[in-house]
Amino acid sequence: MSYIKGDQKSFRLDHDVPSPFPRKVGDRVAVDERCQCWAPRSHHMDTVGYGHGACPPNECEKFSFRSFIFEPRVTTTGQGK
Ligand SMILES: [Zn+2]
């Protein structure tokens, strides 16, 4: 994997470990996970597992789960949420 230094906007990570996302969580689809540092798991380095390592821009040493990031809920009524 390669880590390209830069700010969050230009931040890019090429993962060696395949992403487990999107994946079903209950009746919703998680597209990523939020770390305690607020960066998504996709912005963390790989260890043996996808995105379980450090997140250098946030000086985060190790991914620790805060919450799932779900894809926007799709409704047929157009009311959202
Ligand atoms: Zn983190």
Quickly describe the structure.
This protein has strands at residues 2-4, 12-14, 23-25, 28-35, 65-70. With 81 residues, the protein is an all-beta fold.
Index terms:
two-stranded antiparallel ribbon; 3-stranded antiparallel beta sheet; 81 residues; binds zinc ion; 5 strands; mainly beta; 28% strand
Structural commentary:
- 0% of the residues lie in helices and 28% in strands.
- The protein has no helices and five strands.
- β1 and β2 form a beta hairpin.
- It has strands at 2-4, 12-14, 23-25, 28-35, 65-70.
- The protein has one domain (2-70).
- The chain has 81 residues and is mainly β.
- The mean pLDDT is 86.
- It starts with a strand and ends in an 11-residue tail after the last strand.
- It is elongated, with a radius of gyration of 14 Å.
- A three-stranded antiparallel beta sheet has the order 3-4-5, with no helix packed on it.
Which secondary structure elements does this structure contain, and how are they paired or packed?
Layout (H helix, E strand, L loop, with lengths): L1 E3 L7 E3 L8 E3 L2 E8 L29 E6 L11
Antiparallel strand pairs: 1-2, 3-4, 4-5
The structure holds zinc ion (ZN).
The site of zinc ion (ZN) has 8 residues, from loops.
